[in-house]
Each structure stands twice: as structure tokens, then as C-alpha cells.
Amino acid sequence: MTGLSRRRRLAAVAVIALVAMAGTACSSSDDSSADGGAYLVWDPYPQFAADSEWVALLKKCGTSAGVTVERTSYDTTDLTNKALLAAQQGNSPDVLIVDNPVISTLAEAGALTTTDDNKLDVSAMAANLLGAGQSEGKTYGVPIGANTLALYYNKDLLTAAGVDPATVTDWTSLTAALTKVKAKGKKGITFSAIGTEEGSFQFLPWFWGSGAQLTSLDSPQAVSALALWTDWLKQGLAPNSIINNTQTTSWQEFATGDYAFAENGTWQLANAEKLGFSYGTIAIPATAGGPAPAPTGGEFVSIPVQKNTGRYEASQKIVACLTSADNLLTTDTTLSYVAPVAAVQDRQATADPKLKVWVEAVRAAKGRTGDNLGTKYPKISESLWTAVQASLSGGKSPRDALTAAQAAATTK
Strand pairing partners for 301? Predict the structure, then answer.
């Protein structure tokens, strides 16, 4: 790619970021990546203070690479905007850690080096997790860890309803369990179906678990998935609140003790230990059994394009250090993530048996931008959550809602 064409692509992709930033320029600290021994790392973890183990690890990895790490932290949305603007200005950090769906946006903008360029070794990474950082056959970063979705259940309610959670293995057995719980005067399942990316994120395990593909939103398999959710609502097995629920509010519903199941993520594990009842977890089942592919959350560590390509060697050493097996174990435990390396996943599950279900779920998971969707995914996702809202609200049948979604996704 020529420098001119790369600048044009960056300018086009950065338009949204420029509007969002309302004319705010990058600070002078962004120039630190050009200083001799100083390497700038940007991350989306503002919750970790300067004296945290995470920052200590960054500094340790810098020292092992023979450089000094200067870390700047932003919230996820701000980080994406700043990364695009910095790339446009030729002022990118040396190491960038971003939410995995953002990788395709930055890659399309020409802002990231590939693993062929920077010589990062990704051979040990789980292929399904690595896929979120791949586009057109090229890999643009290394996953630092993953979270995903599973079903939490209330042991007391299931016992009272005569349901053994081990028998919930497909859609038919799950619906039967919800029906038994309702017959006992309790509530079935809560989840988030809000008209945002959260709603798509929560619907995807059922969508993919039906055998549907994001390139064909109106397939018979996709219709069956939306019909499942819609029928649960009609039968009173799921509450009307799901239409507006976020993942946080649906968790709050589950925490009342009135619901048998809740679809939620690894990030609720700490809160689960504070519940006033005994809980367990099972993988979200696919329609015919087995764990459904759930979407992955989590970040990638990437190396942005630099004018001085000699900087890549030290950057590669920093990233390799951050994603080494021992450091991944520490970092992913801190972040409540499942590691992207099978051997480390096994160590996590051995240390904490409650993570076995989550390891199973992550091993079956998929990246939202995988299947070479890249920057097409946001358009598809918006069409999908719009269809879910239309069906659950009664505005359209599942088939009509998804037919409209497919038409919208292909014309936007």
C-alpha cells in the first residue's frame, strides 16, 4: 500500500472519530512513541491504577525489551477514536490494546501491522479466538484473553421444579425446564434483547446455535432462533423487560432469586459469589445439543504502523512478554478472562473448577467479525438487533423481521 493510499483510507475511516472527538487534538504525550528509549502503550483498562499489577507487568515487559514503557489508558470508545486519529497523524503508540471488533476497523484503515510484518508468533493461540483479529488472510494482533456468555442457573429453583441442570442440553430440554419452573410459580429466563450491540451479542449464541450465518439473516435456521426467543416471551417463560434489558439489568433480575436462568458473562463471576442463593453455570445449548458458539469479548494486543520500522523489534518483544503463558495466566485471572492458549485454559480450570464451563464456552466461541466480515459486522448487527426488537415487540413475525433485516444489511 502506498503512503498516499494509506493516508486516504485513514482519513475516510477517521471521519466518525473526528466528529466524536469534536475537534479535540491528541495531546503532546502522543509524541512519546518517537522518543529513543520510550515506548508508548495504550490500553482500555482505566480501572488499573499506576501501582497495579497490570502496570507493573507492562513496565517489566518494557525492561525485558530494553526500553521504558509509558502507558496511557482510555475507555474503549475513546481509545478507538484516538487510535484512528493518531494513525492519521502518523503518531500512533508502539503497542495498542483494543477490543477485538475494533481490530478490523483499524486494519482496514491501514493502521496496524500484520504478524508477517512484526514477526509475532501466534501459533499457540486458539484459532477461534485469533479469528477476530484476522482479515483477508492476514492476522493483525494477539488475543490477550476472552470472555463470553453462558447460562447461570438458580440451583434452588431448579431443584424445586424437579429439573436436573445436567439434562438441559438443547433447546427442547431448556424450554421444558423453563415450563416446569413457571408451573411452580417462578420465572424462567432473563437476558438482554435491547436494541444495541448488547442485544445482538446476547442473541448470537442462539443465532449461531441454530446453524445460521451472519451473511444470511433470513435463513430458516435464523428464523428458528428468533422464534425461540419470541415464543418464550409469548408463553411467559421470559419477561417483557428483556426488550429493554441491558446485561446489567438482566443480571439484577436474576439476582432477585425469582429466575431459574440468566444469560450473562464471565464478568459476573464476582457478583455471582454474592448471590443469596446457590448457583451454577452451563454452556448455552445449540438447537440439537452441545455448546452453541457464543461471541467473544476481550482485547487484542497489536502493533500499529510506525514511520520508523526499526521500532517493531522492541514492540514485538513487549507483546510477546505480555502474551507469554505465565503472564497471560496472571492477567486473565485479574480481568476474569479465559486465556487464548489451551494449556493456560487448562491451568485456569484446574485452579478454579467453576471456570470449566467457561473454558468450554470459549472453546466453542466465535469472533463477531470472523468469517471475513470485518467492518461489515456493525451494519449486520444493527439489522439483527432491529429484527429482534421488531419480533419481540409483536411488530413483525420472526420471518418478516429477519427478511427485512437481510434486505437492510445488504443495502446499507
Answer: 97, 142
First to last CA, the chain: 27
3-state class (DSSP) for residue 46: coil
The β-bridge relationship of strands 38-43 and 68-73 is: parallel
pLDDT attached to residue 202: 98
State the helix-helix crossing angle for 325-335 and 53-64, rounded to 10 degrees: 160
Residue keyed to cell 488499573: 48
In whole angstroms, give the CA distance from residue 312 to residue 318: 10
Name the residue among 101, 100, 292, 290 with its Cα closest to residue 205: 292
DSSP 322: H
Q: How confident is the model at residue 32 (pLDDT cuts 50, 70, 90)?
A: very low
Q: Which stretch of 2-11, 84-93, 96-105 has the lowest confidence by average pLDDT?
A: 2-11
| The amino acid at 292 | A
The CB density around residue 7, as the number of other CB atoms within 10 Å, is 15
Beta bridge partners of 112: 304
Residue type, 266: T
